[in-house]
Amino acid sequence: MTTHRQLPITVYSPGSAMRQPSQLLADLFRDVCRGRGLAWRLAVRDISAQYRQAALGLLWALILPLANTAVWLFLNGSGIVQISETPLPYAVYVFTGTMLWAIFMDAMNAPLQQATAAKAMLAKINFPREALVMSGILQTLFNGGIKIALLLVVLLFFGIYPSWPLLLFPIGVASLILAGTAFGLLLTPVGLLYTDIGKGLPLVLQFLMYLTPVVFPMPTSGWALTLFSWNPLTPLILTARDWLTGLPGDLLGPFLLVNAILLVLLLFMGIVFRLAMPMLIERMGS
Amino acid sequence: MPKRAHNNDDVLVRVEGVGKKFCRDLKKSLWYGVKDIAAELLPGEREIERHATLRRGEFWAVDDVSFELRRGECLGLIGRNGAGKTTLLKMLNGLIKPDKGRIEMRGRVGALIALGAGFNPILTGRENIYVNGSVLGLTKREIDGKLEQIVEFSGIPEFIDAPVQSYSSGMTVRLGFAVASTLSPDVLILDEILSVGDSAFQLKCLNRLGELMLTGTASIMVTHQLHNIERHSNSAVVLVDGCVAFSGLTHAAIDFYHRQTGPDGFPGEFVYPSNSLFRIKHVVKQHPPRAGGSSSLTVAYDAERPVGRCHISYVFKVSGVEIFRSTTKTLGDSPFNLDRNGTFDIVFPAGLKALPSSSISFSLWDEDFSQVFVWVKDMPLSTQNNDRSPRIVVRSGYQNGA
């Protein structure tokens, strides 16, 4: 006669998991912990596969923001677009801006991209799906690391030397990734059902970039100022850029407020992502 | 419900009145998806009722299925394509939620469904072992410890450092199985696993399955190769249009399934090409009248127009093992002509005697084997099956698809 070890019991029933919120949160955190190893493994898989079949390798992490910078330097230099005075030399302003924006954009695209790429796996295997989101964050961090390394070199070239606010810069990057992930997760459930989201996202992001002090400085007056000031990304980009270039940052209050809201949003979207998964998988086919 | 004398702790899978609805229309299904997600986040008062009600365009893909599975048992799930087998497995595996009923799974659940899930074709076999292992819930240390065993089990050690895109599909499946087979789940879900790979691979699968069953793993098996179910399962469930049409001992379930497709409840699976105008009316078996004579079958058929010149291909099995396979062409017969209706005989070479466990599969072809009119699978030849036992009554709503 065998002795029975106490086996965990899993119950599946039609009722919503929202009815037991504490259980739901416990399950969420358990799966986040359980999924760490898998997230790492998936990130390593994607990064090595991505660069193994590209002759330019790691350079691809830089090419897009570099091209973007070049375009804006040309537009400004030739006088096609008149850009008002920036607090830093314009080249530094636009280069740091596009690099930081690229990190945010990577983070925002990641959840939907990861989930779409893993459709076949999602439809057949039960694994902690939070790992997909975490793997996206790891990949954004890796690609972001390359960008930041280049940024630091270029800043030296422009005579901007590291100073103490640089120590805070990782927090700035983290908050950009936090914002990207939270917004990205917001779009993922519907984006997995309707491809319209994935198609429209680049357009929206492009527009959003012009409403954030990435290539333009903060406007000084008018409705543009109102839009820029209400844009939650403004304090994130400005503070990250300030810390990178050795300034203490003058939007610290809004920066902290936005981050606090984003943390709550991330938790909420994590729950939505988790609850929506069975309905999404149902419609993924086998 | 009467309780059996078993220890209740032994039940690893308990499925009670489970149902799942699907929508055939894609646009509607997507919109329902959005609504379902909203309802999951903000469950209303009458949530359970709403789940159990069909909306426009929906149907029950699985309806009111119940069963229990104990330690060491193997349950076969039998049914045609679209009968709801895979949907049921997905619910058991926690991939999708039931709309009705309740599922209770005890212990670690392992699924041999998507072999090689997460494989990236550009990476090497070795790298992909780590990816696939992680997806299946193994830690890096566990994979490190089992790496050699996995490589050896896959049978392709010489290719392990080549990118997986250079593998044949069979090799990929072998590697995937090698990883998956290191798991020792309490409940194992197998979906058509045995239909991939070559014979040597299938033997490995079967042996591994046997090992797991001895250690007390409960398994649920879906396959169209019914002899595998017959060999491993203690009991089986026949699903017809999402409902349990039969549940009981394996051989009875297989018999029931065969009766669904044959003419007038005749055992054996009768398969016709879509929009075929050819139908078999009945089959009469003739056993050798005296020693040395040949067994034969007389098949009566009906067709819309003259069938033309035909050949027959057949396989003779005893206890599921193939004894003889041939075609009338190989045996040197010239094609025979079939009119709009009538009968034809299949005469087996002398020496092929019908034992109680013999069965035959045959297919009727045009003279150059380019068109098949009917394929009859695994029709028992034994005498005791000749007397037609009464058909088991199927719940209403099911129409014989043949």
TrEMBL record, chain A:
Record keywords: Membrane, Transmembrane, Transmembrane helix, Transport
TM regions (residue ranges): 55-75, 90-110, 131-161, 167-195, 207-231, 251-276
Recorded superkingdom: Bacteria
Keyword Transport: yes
Localization terms from the record: Cell inner membrane
Gene Ontology terms: cellular component: plasma membrane
Annotated membrane topology: Multi-pass membrane protein
Biological processes, Gene Ontology terms: lipopolysaccharide transport
Family: Belongs to the ABC-2 integral membrane protein family.
PANTHER family: INNER MEMBRANE TRANSPORT PERMEASE, TRANSPORT PERMEASE PROTEIN
Annotated protein name in UniProt: ABC-2 type transporter
From TrEMBL, chain B:
Main EC class the enzyme belongs to: hydrolase
GO molecular function, one term: ATP binding
EC annotation from Swiss-Prot or TrEMBL: 3.6.3.40
Tagged with keyword Coiled coil: no
Alphabetical UniProt keywords: ATP-binding, Hydrolase, Nucleotide-binding, Transport
Listed GO CC annotations: membrane
Family: Belongs to the ABC transporter superfamily.
Protein name, UniProt field: Teichoic-acid-transporting ATPase
Organism: Thiocapsa marina 5811
